[in-house]
Design goal:
Elements (H helix, E strand, L loop, with lengths): L3 H10 L7 H8 L2 E5 L2 E6 L2 E5 L10 H12 L3 E6 L10 E2 L3 E7 L7 H11 L3 E4 L4 H13 L4 H8 L1 H7 L3 E8 L2 E9 L5 E9 L8 H15 L4 E6 L3 H9 L3 E12 L14
Parallel strand pairs: 3-4, 10-11
Antiparallel strand pairs: 1-2, 2-3, 4-12, 5-12, 6-11, 6-12, 7-8, 8-9, 9-10
Length: 275
């Protein structure tokens, strides 16, 4: 459990999505804890240890992680950090990636991107919405159109839980004649950062530039709430990386994830490979 002081500390210093307790807890079903200078999540003998410290002069992760394992005694662990650590338990490392950041205020905009935003504005209206049947249907169709892992599907299916639970998540939707064309989920759960969490588009109503228009609205919203930057998430694949780069996103933080089996207990941490 997090105290009010701990929640405020996390809000003041959060800079990666794993620092959003409502997000990770809703997806994983875990309980958040602030352990030394690190956020972690624990549920049914499974520990998610977020190796991105919430302090300017943090405790060494090489000491904090073993201490967390001693306290929680997990059977399985997922450790995420900005470097690949050498662990006595070994583990199954996942492909390395990096977080992208967009600094605010935006100093300039690619003319081609600006054109796409203006084009989409002629057909679409953007507003802050509430998660409902239309959003669930778009996510369901999105899952069916691509080959996702079981962990990714689990995350997508729990987006509703996340949005309903979080007090800082915003659902931005683009509509054409009241029909839902696309929507994004942005989280404002940090004093300095906004977080670009998800973007989904309808397969039945295609409007060029819809995602760009939503991205533009996210920037406006982040500026209005005094954010200094937007964490755009991981590069994931070349298409998503190009989309973030065309808006001016730059890689700023490495992401390494390793799954560790500390006992012969059943693997209940499937989704955490993605987290």
């Amino acid at each position: 459990m997090l105290s009010s002081d701990e929640q405020n500390r996390i809000y003041q210093q959060a800079y990666v999505p794993e620092h959003l307790p409502d997000y990770v807890a809703a997806i994983s079903g875990s309980e958040p804890y602030l352990f030394q200078d690190y956020l972690c999540y624990f549920h049914r003998n499974h520990l998610i240890f977020v190796g991105y410290p919430l302090a300017d002069n943090p405790a060494e992760i090489s000491r904090a992680y073993p201490a967390a394992c001693e306290r929680f005694n997990p059977h399985t662990v997922v450790l995420v950090a900005d470097e690949q650590l050498s662990l006595p338990e070994g583990g199954n490392p996942q492909p390395a990636d990096c977080y992208y950041r967009l600094n605010l205020p935006l100093k300039s905009l690619n003319p081609d991107v600006a054109y796409m935003v203006r084009r989409a504005e002629r057909e679409l209206k953007v507003r802050v919405g509430q998660f409902g049947r239309e959003h669930k249907k778009i996510i369901k169709n999105f899952i069916g159109r691509q080959d996702f892992s079981a962990e990714q599907i689990h995350i997508f299916k729990h987006v509703k839980n996340y949005v309903k639970r979080s007090k800082t998540a915003r659902l931005l939707e683009a509509r054409k004649d009241d029909r839902l064309v696309a929507f994004s989920i942005v989280d404002m759960g940090s004093a300095c950062y906004a977080f670009y969490q998800f973007n989904f588009r309808s397969a039945g109503i295609a409007v060029p530039g819809a995602s760009d228009l939503l991205f533009s609205e996210m920037i406006r919203l982040a500026n209005s709430e005094g954010k200094q930057a937007i964490n755009l998430g991981l590069s994931v694949n070349p298409g998503i990386r190009r989309f973030k780069e065309k808006w001016g996103g730059k890689p700023f933080l490495n992401h390494h994830s390793v799954f560790i089996q500390r006992s012969q207990a059943p693997d209940i941490g499937n989704l955490s490979r993605k987290l």
